[in-house]
Queue: 2 jobs
Job 1
Amino acid sequence: MYHVILIGIVFLILYFLTLTASKFRIITVRGHRAFWNTILLITFLTAASAGIFLALQSNYKWEIQSVEKILSWHVEAGIAMSFTAFLHLTWNLGYYIRIITGGGEKNSVPVNYGVSKELFFNYRIMLLILGFISGAVQVIFLREILNLSGGYEIATGAVFAFWIIISAFGARMAGKSKNTNLVSLTAVLPLGSIISLVIFIVLSKVMIEEGLTPGIIYTLIITGLSLIPFCFLSGFLFVRLSFCASRETQLLPGDSFALETTGSMIAGIIVTIVTGNILGNFQILAAAIILYYIVYLIAGRFRYYRILTGIAALCLVAVIIFKPDTFVRNILLGSVKVTRSIDSKYGNVAISEYEGSGSVFYNHRLIDYEQDEKQTEENIHYAMLQSEAPEEILIISGGADKHIGEVLKYPSVKSISYLERDPVLIACTRDTSINYTSAEVVFENDDAFSYIRGSSKKYDVIISLLAEPENIVTNRFYTREYFQAIKRIMSKGGIFMLKAGGSGTYLSDEETGSLSAIYNSLVGVFSNILPIKGESLYLISSDSMLNANIPDLVADRGIETTYVNSYYLSRQIIKFNSDQVVSIIDSLMPGNMLDKPRAVFYRQKHQLKKAGRYRIPFIAAICVLLLIPFLTGNNSSRTMYSAALNLAGTELLALILIQSTAGNFYQLAGLLIAVVMAGLAIGSASEIKISPWLIEMIPVMLGFLAIIFALVSPLILEIQSGTIPVILSLLIVIIPAVLAGSYYRRKTGEELSSKIISGIYFADMCGAALGFMIIAGILVPLFGIKSTFFILAFFNFASYITNRVISGIGNLVQ
Amino acid sequence: MKKREFVKNCLMGAGVITACPALLHGSPSRHVKERNYRLALFQEESAKGIMCRICPNECVLKEGELSECRNRIVRNGKLYTMAYGNPCAINLDPVEKKPLYHFMPSTITFSIATAGCNLACLNCQNWTISQTSPDKTRNSDLMPGSVISNAHNYQCKSISYTYSEPITFYEYVFDSATLARQSGLRNILVSNGYINTEPLLKLSSVIDAANIDLKSFNDKTYIKLTGGKLEPVLETLKILKEEQVWLEITNLVVPEWTDKMDEIREMCKWLYSNGFSDTPLHFSRFTPMYKLEQLPPTPVSILNRAWEIAREEGINHVYIGNVPGTHACDTFCDKCGEKVVERRGYTITANNIENGRCKFCNSVISGVWE
Ligand code: SF4
Ligand SMILES: [Zn+2]
């Protein structure tokens, strides 16, 4: 096999790197061309000499052992040469066009895109659309990267960290650069996002075997490499724009920051609105790029800008009509044929087929497939059999028709409520032609937590088939608070069943930790808990007695089943396994709570284990990298760093508070982010004069705020109504956001230097990245919300004290 | 054995289970104790260190180094196993679950495993014990003598060395199996078959039945999917047959990886031409597992096609596993074509084999039926 794709990617990346380096004056344009001319020469010589050799061998029938090797050298070098030649063509394209069109060689003056810089540049608009495209690309990429990695918090944090590191690196380089050709830089930015996407797709195909979920290390390598073009460019461009704008116009760096942030905020809101079944992820990306160019063309008033804008508008229509999503999803989910890809408000649903057998993937994880009697029956009967004559049944998620069908095997059932957050999931697991007649079947479309808190109906059996507590979002359905809410809507002696993780032969320490936390939360709410090990580990809870003798129960009730019966199951083995599970529960482990999501910590640790030996040093290395600006920066960057870390942490904690109380994560998350952005924008744009002394005191203020939040957070969690906690959570983030924004404005405005702007921006980003990573992945799951606020307070005070000490030493030395 | 007997056996087992759960679950230890270290068999000194010759990995280890299978270590210039008498998984299973359909049907087998494996399959069901070391798992204290007494207590007819990879806890398997034989119990090896000839010959002398995973018939796929090679596994099948160990083969059909019909046909041809036509072949359904999560489960139509191919190529006893309700779980007489064993799940619902022979035509049905 010849390495056409691999050589192609390597050459493209290399070409892009040398080209970018030359554009940013890291190397000269001549150096870049000399490098590629040399490559061309080497590949040509290799291919040619191997070719001559092969020709002679064939003519004179030489008996040579390694002729296959020479042939492969000939072909591989040929491939490399072809790619180089194509790349070569790009810088001589004008020359060939002129030959073809008869223009000759006389016009060698560089073309300046037909406009003068002064005419073109409107810094405000450019900063706004830079923010817009960055925001849009960030949301889309984050979604795709999470699909790739499985969406664990620590991976999310790490991915976000990578995003920021690269942008920050771009910003840092911009501090050193003298490039003022902003016209072309702004023109290539969206191309960066396309290149990033192509690299992402190609690398996920080349580096990951079919069907494989990459571990954290691979995820980060793919993420890191694919984000380089876009993030580097956007970070670089922001600082250059910001610097040039402050030099040429009245725009202070703080204003630039506010404009860019506003652009991101607008993108965030628009993307959230158009995602719900309207546009697919890749459609949105394409549309955002085209919109960017439309604004760019109009703002620049290029020579043919009207025609070009018209063409762009036509492209926009084409993207909306011809959905690229199914096509791209097919490449990404290569193992199956995706027949439809829908991006709902809650995730990506890919309806697919493999050898005629249908399956549904949700965020690239299999959630439904044909002929899964084993799991479907287990999901229903272990719980249903425990109730004498169940009438009112609630099924939460897991797939509609197949589960309802099993429940209807019980003649006593009068009504079934099927609850699912994502309407797209109901639609694709339900056959609307089926008319349920033997019982009333209601499809509810709501978040499980808010539905249960708001329901006045009583159920005999409640079966929760929601995703496992792999992240803070899904953890809510495995907490004591949730179980208490469930119990409130259960009839006397009702049955509640949930799935609590895998059920391998041996449960690892991490699985045991997560299981113990969930089990102990149930213990506080129900008097009896019966674990049953099947395809998953089921925990059945009730205040009535529970019976592990499933085979006899099925036989007595006369329920027709394929798998849940005495032919497959034996009472003794169920009992044996059940006892074994109970024996490994750590009774000292505190229960899983909304504000202390312990189960997530253990589940994520369990998932991370799959990544192999180097996962911990790898993550530690990223944390250390992110700490560099704090450890090596000056007082300003240290303060910016701690303010950003504090803000990221507070944002996350507020998000958890919202989820835990209002139970509506997805939509309100957008609102929360918008509030943070608005706070930053207000802080960084406001003209209010603040004394320097007060500015230096910002970490102390943030520290005290964190203490106050620590004290009020348990009170917020106790409020049952949805709106008040949401308002309180939004209030929690706005003050730290305004303070962080103001600090940015004052510090970057003190002295006009792109080095200072980039240094502060770099610190800001690294602080935020570290905040997301350690708070989501480690602090909240281990210590809970309240203690994490205290830790944040401590960090802010530490930052202030370090600054004072360093300044004190500096003064002494002077 | 009929369903009633099966249930009776289970009931008797249950009496014991409730009587002594503490033995199995009681305070498992995380540490490998001194008595769990045993001098490893088949070790050789080489210029680069101590070489283990048990499996084709042939690890060469220096002082303090851990083997690829993670349960062998060099101490004071000698190779030791750390997996002796410290299983981390103990279970009771119907023998059909191993799967073994032609070996003492409807009996319960006492299953044990320690941590460690010499391969690293992307779809390992038991990765929490196979990809780790005994010092990182919760282990029970169960020396070979106790394995035997427990198996007897639970009314088991056999002991299965299973779940992770018994080849890597070779010494424990060998000693337990030797004792088991003496006490009238049979021994079952559920393995990837990735073992060298000499250790396998020695082990065969105490093993009664084996289920070997033949994971693919393509060497490149084998390496990518498992980290091992195909050839040694084929060699294992031949040796087990020659040594008259009752053998059944499992082929897990993984979409996109091992579901190519031409490869399945090639595999069946090889089995037939090497004298395995009477060896039961189980095609097992894949479900997303461990690192292979972004795949669909194997469509049942593919398993049915594989079943047909195997039959066309002359394999007499072909089964489909992990698909409840499948009809490809019954045994037919290869002479008269009558159904001799009817199964539903792990239970035999009709048995027409008497003294190992078909009730209808009196020809021998290969297997160990009593
Ligand atoms: S049994 Fe273990 S130590 Fe021995 S060669 Fe195989 S992998 Fe290496
Ligand atoms: Zn017969």
Note: Chain B touches chain A through 57 residues (CB under 8 Å).
Job 2
Amino acid sequence: MALPSYSLRDPNGMYTFSSRPRPVEIRSKYREPAPEQTQRQYGNIMYDRRVVRGNTFAQHPIPRTDQSDPAKQQAFKRRAIARRQARVHLRTKSPEALQGRQHVDVQTELYLEELSNVIEATDTECQTDEFLDKPATPLFIPAKSGVDAGTQIEEGELFDFDLEVQPVLEVLVGKTIEQSLLEVMEEEELACLRTQQRIFQELRNNELAEVQRLQEQERRRREEKVLRVAQQKEALKKERETAEKIAAQAFSQQYLAGLLPSVFTSLKNHGYFYDPVEKDIEVNFLPWLMAEVNDQLKKRFVARELLDTIIYEVSQKRLEEFNRLETRQDSSDP
Amino acid sequence: MAAAVQDPNRAAVAFGRQAVPQLFEQLQQRDAPCSLRVLTSLCDLVHEPERLYQIVTGGFIAQLQDLLKEEDPSVRTKTCELLHLLTSHSIGRLALLSSSLLPPLSDLLDDSSSSCRRNVHLVLNGLAQMPAGAQALLMLVPKLMLKLRQMEEEQEEEEALLLSTLSSCSRLDPLPALASDGVPVLGHTLSHCSPSICREATEVLMALSIPEDGKRQVCEEQVLPVLMGLLQNGDLQVQTNAAGVIMNTVIITTGPSSCLVLLR
């Protein structure tokens, strides 16, 4: 993922592979069941088991059949023998000789060769002469070639790590301590700020409580005052009302003092006070009396009227009669 | 040379100025395991102020918005961790406030992964320490109160952080928290809690008991007995805060009377 490798086939058929150099991963002796993709444990190549170290001449080659088990080895040998025998059996042989004939092996090469089991061998001996004393070989000093060069390390030329490292160390340590001091100071500053905040909060709370207490007190006093003033006003109003009432009562009493007799007199004058007998006589008896008198008089009047009409009729009759008489008389006396 | 022995959990970091832009480019690919590695490397880098400045001024914060909606919970957790590291500096905090990251963050409060929720709480806590941040978080207070009500026993760390955020916000303006029944919920929290939660809860109560409404509620909701009990608590901070709440409460007239009733 981070180190991609590219392999591609050219159109000509050439295969190219390129990859960024990547560090070799360690491979453990026993493979893990599921290696994860993301974890790449880069190992040290010096300790890689796959890299051959040291002299390679002394190593024995890896045996072909690396069988350590003797039973397995024997089984293998038996199987090899069996295989060989099977091969021999399988090989096609020339047919058997007919009767009277005999097959003989014959060499057919150009130059005959004697085949025999006996190997010709010759023994040869050789013996060196007695060793002669010889002087020691002189030291081999090869011929001088090249330019002579000499070097000498003077005092103070060698790299003294302790000396060189000091300024670097001072800088490192100084910076670290400075950084840590800064951080500590920051923390202390923060702590100081917090303390200040807390102190402020406390003062504020106290003052707030005091202010509220005073407010409450003020409010209570004001309410009390208002209440008292209202009470007083009530009282005054009541007093005034009472005084007014008294005054009104006195005045009305005085006003009404003369009212009663005058009322009585006026009523009496208007006839509201009456003697019931008198009234009764006036109301009931006298009208009845008058009505009766009226009736009587009416009757007399009717009677008179009647009499008047009778008299009138009589007189009319008489007149008529007299008239008739007169006319008769007139007519009778010409 | 250091990259040769690479930590498999971290992405490769370019040298110098290119580090941050290149990492954010890799983030554009939206490949979940790759994003996780890139975020881990970013979290390491952000501890240095220069890189933080680079992130803020390069305008890369808007990219993190998409990451907050990823399906993989570890990616969301890492993004929130990165945001938390951003809040350790003032420019980071300001950048967070001016970006539009607060709504997605508040959605993540209901996340299924507890580590993600914890990191979100860390971010909000960091933001709330600043007055402008607390102002911005005031709108979130009802939702935070809801979460407090639903909080179970095991989520102590989250609860402590949540309460700390609430206390910072309420110190600025206690009315939203009061409006969402802050006092009864906190009274309930106080009765069974560990020291850290007690500390934070009493702090919130102290902030809430400053307006008059809060004082009245503290008297009415029977929180005073619990507070009296807390005065005997071993932790100094808890005692202090409880005393503070009582100090605020006795300012109104019903306060001392209820206290005296209790003392009898």
Note: Chain A has four helices and two strands.
